[in-house]
């Protein structure tokens, strides 16, 4: 169902509030650059800091701006099954194409607990669900047998794999239904993930260079390996720079350098350090020289 490059978008803030105009403009720019879809209110979108009203407004505005041109996927996962069901119902009501549901964090459920959690969501809301498996943030790792069981359910249609295990996409492909979509959340190994049977990625770096990553994906699909390899090498320094400090701190700075939003975070996150900004600037310049980024002068 979902293949290609999807951007886990930043949430623009202005003076502590949701910057609605910057959000609309950013969505339009992403669509114009050829992105396949958008994820709202994920890790990169600083979802834990959003109020219930802000979360609803963020999702509404993104869906309204996209106007069905590309799918908008809502981050609805929490470490409470009931709250996740409630958020997923809201996403369906507002017109989201799917829900991205993270494995329950902090609680550290067993494989059986995770299976029951996702089964309850599947049974409660008729909306496509993508499992988000990110062990470093959640403290739990959904294993392939558990995911294979869940892939048989009606609404569980894919996974965002952020395990940083390049054997995982192939193992998942062999264990799950053929139409189960396998997307990476590990930006630096996006190219390798495709080669290991992946269908695409839900990426942070595409906040900054959506066109370059779309062209890289298209080159893979068309087997233009020379172009694929060139873009993979060109984008790699930016992948690394955007994760030199906690996401989304560096990417928020990078997007601000493009003039797309303010470099404004919400506590407990704060702005990137000078050293991190220098790494981002150097990586951005490589892509700017190749015509994939337009860096704005600092005010």
**What distance separates the N and C termini?**
43 Å
Treating each run of at least 4 consecutive H or I residues as one helix, how many helices? 12
Give me the strand/helix succession: EEEHEHEHEHEHHEHEHEHHHH
CATH class identity of the domain at 4-209: Alpha Beta
Describe the structure.
With 299 residues, this protein is α/β, with parallel strands linked by helices. It has a domain at 4-209: Aldolase class I (TIM Barrel, Alpha-Beta Barrel). The chain is built from 12 helices and 10 strands. The protein has helices at 20-32, 52-66, 81-94, 111-124, 135-138, 144-151, 168-175, 190-195, 210-221, 225-241, 249-257, 274-289, and strands at residues 4-8, 13-14, 17-18, 37-40, 72-75, 98-102, 129-133, 156-161, 181-184, 200-203. An 8-stranded parallel barrel has the order 1-4-5-6-7-8-9-10, surrounded by 5 helices. A two-stranded antiparallel ribbon has the order 2-3. Strand 4 (37-40), helix 2 and strand 5 form a beta-alpha-beta unit. Helix 4 packs parallel to helix 6 and helix 9 (210-221) runs antiparallel to helix 10 (225-241). The longest helix has 17 residues, at 225-241. The protein is globular, with a radius of gyration of 18 Å.
What are the salient characteristics of this protein?
299 residues; alpha/beta; TIM Barrel; eight-stranded parallel barrel; two-stranded antiparallel ribbon; 10 strands
Briefly summarize what is shown.
This protein has an eight-stranded parallel β-barrel with strand order 1-4-5-6-7-8-9-10, surrounded by five helices. The chain has a domain at 4-209: Aldolase class I (TIM Barrel, Alpha-Beta Barrel), CATH 3.20.20.70. The chain is built from twelve helices and ten strands.
